[in-house]
Design brief:
heterodimer, A: mainly alpha, B: alpha+beta, Tumour Suppressor Smad4, 5-stranded mixed β-sheet, 13 helices
């Protein structure tokens, strides 16, 4: 998946969505209901109906993408329409609301919809931008490959440290045994592991190498090895970060879609229940 | 004798590989260091981890510094060593055993190998969001159920709980709880101020589920709200098919005064800009808005001849005249140099000297002779009798007062008028004979009528009223004042126009006759007020001066049906 979703067939769905929005804006501009614009005028009901229909259709994408049997319409086309009609909802639903917001189920549905749309927009950005960044960051390797190199370096470091003092050996052992890549949600998304034992070990070696033991070949070797390992760790963490960014929005997009559907049901039910 | 050190390594295919070395007795160092007698090549072991040394015929083991050591499972820093003891140094297990030809043997086994670096690194690291506790399905269900519960199930349950408990209780102000008040989340906008006192009781208006708010709900309070036009004359006036709420939109409190009553021009102008075409029977003149030319000149309802109301445009020729029966020159009373007060000399009058705003600031209080005129226009009829005043508006009583006064004077002989007969001018205290008494009374009667002619016809009454007749029978023309000059408009809010001088709108300073109509022309209003879209004037729509429901018409909707508001 890449930019092709955005530009699909010469921005066909961008055009469709823009036309829909322009039509809604023009109607809204000339629409003058008694009181103030709201979801209960003929235009309000119209925009609300169109908005709800679009939301249901957009949800159908979740079903469609799980069908591996190719349909009449390519998945790519579905996604392109999903993106642009989803973005069009921002305008259609806002006009439907008549810019009236409050602490109620109606605004709740609107807010949930905006969360879904904005997370989707981030997802689009991630899918367009991050694959290239991942490729660049990996420099032709895989994450497994990087991990293997790190493990090899650990072994090498330990061998060197074996002959050295306990302080050095302990630091190297900790670097090998306690260094982590990623971890929890924050660690994965931030691409940082604070208090990394490898970095601590590297700093110690650098300090020692600059001190009275500057001629110790073992320490100098460890500086090299640990610096290399630190580089690889950075690369691995960036890879995990980019992957997490590409995935994380979906953990908002999907659950909030279901919350939105629930709020939408309550919204439609309540306005007609208390008509 | 020596000490046998055996390194045991488990083979992959089973069995144990063994490598023996002999160590000379004495101090035996165990550690990672190459210089140790017992070399333990693992990074988890210190360079010099522990020392076994002979002591008092036995052997003794001592951990170095902070090194961790267990002897037979117990963590210790130092211990004697006996045959059969098991020592743990880092990942190594050492067993002290008997060995023929040696002092003892130490069997060393790596009990906890380092393991695979790669596997452990992968195990420690989290590279997938799923491993970070995120999920889609569980969250989707949870959020959807929470939203449906709070925003659908709960208010719905609350509604039916209220129905069961009886809505009357809630209208009567019964406390709402978390269940019966939970439908607050369905509110679509702030409720207009006047409705807020029952605003948390949705069923007051939304009486039946899935049915639009019906007129009965409104009529429960607003019973008798009048028609816009007479339905007997105009078929459209019933506005059939329309509900109260078709025009009065609730939940728009943020619109301020327009929250319930539309202030828009087109609301009226849509029909009234071409009313003649729609309703040929109408007497109303077409009006589009309040800008010059779009609204006809004001028509006033003036008191005419015979107390009949005459309706005429201010531009009509001849100009409309009020036939009030009074004489009153505004100009004289409002002269800049003032007007002569018999006791205070020159007094400067203002509009407010006579016209006071009515409580509430809408209309003006009526002008009263006793309050506003009598100070100057005294009803004393005899200069010598300062304590005698004629009653106002009661001609018969006035004659009696005068008759009484002159009769008294005559009978007491107090008359000083030299033209009067001597009979009534004699020394006090001398008694009358009966014929004399009758003559004196006859004089008093003549005098009273004579003075009365003066008072009614010229000096007192006639300065304000038109008086006809004479000789004891006077007719004071009836006073009929116009009460509501422009009955098709709301009463004018004088209080809100307070900064403007009265004479800026009412030409009182130039009016010499009471018959002048001092209502301002539409041009006066248009100096400040413009139509809805005016940018350089106060934008004013129809509803600023006119009402939709006209108070003199019949009710627009018949009240009926049960209402939650009805007690």
């Amino acid at each position: 998946m890449n930019e092709s979703v955005v530009v699909y067939r010469g921005f066909r769905y961008l055009k469709v969505a823009t036309l829909l929005c322009l039509l809604a804006i023009v109607l809204y501009a000339f629409h003058t209901p008694i009181g103030q614009p709201n979801g209960g005028s003929w235009l309000g009901y119209g925009l609300g109906g169109i908005g709800a229909a679009i939301i249901l259709w957009l949800m159908w994408f979740g079903v469609r993408k799980r069908r591996y049997k190719p349909g009449k319409v390519k998945l790519e086309e579905w996604l392109s329409a999903h993106v642009y009609l989803g973005l069009a909802l921002i305008i259609i639903a806002t006009l439907h609301s008549g810019f009236q917001f409050g602490w109620n189920v109606h605004t709740l549905a609107y807010v949930l919809m905006m969360v879904v749309i904005l997370s989707g927009a981030f997802g689009l950005y991630a899918y367009v931008r991050y694959p290239r960044l991942m490729t660049e960051n990996r420099r032709g390797q895989t994450l497994d490959g990087i991990f293997t190199q790190i493990a090899d370096l650990d072994r090498e470091c330990r061998d060197v440290a074996m002959r050295l003092g306990d302080e050095v050996n302990d630091a190297v052992l900790a670097a090998a045994q306690r260094t982590r890549v990623g971890g929890g949600l924050v660690r994965q998304l931030s691409g940082r592991n604070p208090n990394c034992p490898t970095l601590a070990a590297l700093k110690l070696m650098q300090k020692l190498a600059a001190g009275p033991r500057h001629d110790d070949a073992g320490v100098r070797k460890l500086v090299q090895l640990l610096a290399k390992k630190d580089d690889l760790l950075g690369q691995a963490r960036r890879d995990v970060q980019l992957l997490a960014m590409m995935q994380v929005w979906l953990f908002i997009h999907v659950p909030f879609t279901f919350a939105l559907i629930a709020a939408l049901v309550a919204h439609v039910f309540s306005v007609f229940f208390y008509w | 004798m020596t000490i046998l050190v055996s390194y045991l390594t488990k083979k992959q295919r089973g069995g144990v590989a063994r490598r023996d070395i002999e160590v000379a007795p004495g101090e035996i160092r165990l550690g990672r260091g190459a210089d140790c007698e017992v070399h333990l090549a693992d990074p988890r072991v210190l360079l010099h981890h522990a020392t076994i040394s002979p002591r008092g015929g036995g052997w003794f083991v001592e951990a170095q510094g902070t090194a961790e050591m267990r002897v037979n499972g117990a963590v210790t820093g130092a211990s004697s060593v006996r045959l059969g003891d098991r020592l743990a140094l880092g990942p190594y297990e050492l067993q002290v055993t008997e060995a023929p030809g040696h002092d003892f043997a130490i069997n060393i086994e790596l009990a906890a190998p380092l393991g695979d670096d790669l596997e452990q690194l992968k195990k420690r690291s989290g590279t997938q969001l799923k491993s970070a506790g995120l999920g889609k399905r569980a969250w989707s269900w949870t959020l959807a159920i929470v939203v449906l519960g709070i925003f659908l199930a709960l208010p719905l349950a609350g509604f039916y709980a209220k129905t069961e408990l009886g809505q009357q209780d809630y209208m009567a102000g019964a406390e709402r709880n978390w269940l019966t008040g939970s439908d607050i989340v369905w509110i679509s906008g702030k409720i207009a101020g006047p409705h807020r006192f029952f605003g948390d009781n949705c069923e007051a208006c939304h009486q039946k589920p899935f049915v639009m708010v019906q007129d009965q709900a409104c009529l429960a309070c607003h019973a008798g709200i009048e028609n816009h036009a007479d339905p007997a004359r105009f078929d459209f006036a019933a506005f059939s098919g329309q509900l109260c709420q078709s025009c009065h939109k609730e939940h728009n409190a943020n619109l301020g005064k327009a929250a319930l009553v539309s202030q828009e021009q087109r609301f009226c102008a849509d029909c009234h800009s071409g009313l003649k075409a729609r309703a040929p029977a109408t007497e109303l003149i077409d009006v589009a808005n309040f800008s010059p030319g779009a609204h006809p000149q004001f028509r006033v309802s003036v008191m005419g001849e015979g107390a009949k109301i005459v309706r005429a445009s201010l531009d009509a020729s001849p100009k409309p005249q009020e036939v009030s029966g009074l004489k009153f020159p505004h100009d004289k009373h409002l002269k800049k140099e003032g007007i002569r007060n018999p006791e205070k000399g020159m007094v400067k009058l203002e509009c407010a000297s006579c016209h006071a705003p009515a409580p509430g600031g809408i209309g003006l209080l009526p002008v009263r002779m006793e309050t506003h005129c009598a100070e100057c226009h005294s009803l004393r009829f005899e200069p010598k009798a300062l304590d005698r005043v004629l009653p106002h508006a009661k001609p018969e009583q006035a004659l009696m007062v005068m008759r009484d006064f002159y009769a008294g004077q005559a009978l007491r002989g107090e008359v000083t008028d030299e033209t009067a007969p001597a009979l009534v001018r004699r020394r006090p205290g001398v008694p009358f004979t009966e014929p004399e008494r009758l003559e004196a009374l006859a004089w008093a009667e003549r005098k009273a009528i004579e003075v009365g002619d003066q008072v009614f016809g010229k000096t007192l009454c006639a300065s304000c009223h038109t008086v006809t007749g004479g000789q004891g029978k006077w007719e004071v023309a009836k006073v009929s004042l116009t009460w509501h000059w422009m009955p098709k408009a709301k009463l004018f809010p004088h209080d809100r126009h307070e900064p403007v001088a009265c004479v800026a709108c009412h030409d009182a300073e130039l009016s010499a006759a009471a018959s002048d109509v001092l209502m301002p022309s539409i041009k006066t209003c248009q100096q400040c007020h413009g139509g809805e879209t005016a940018t350089d004037k106060v934008p004013s729509t129809c509803i600023a001066c006119h009402e939709f429901h006209l108070p003199h018409l019949s009710p627009m909707r018949a009240a009926g049906g049960g209402s939650a508001m009805a007690k």
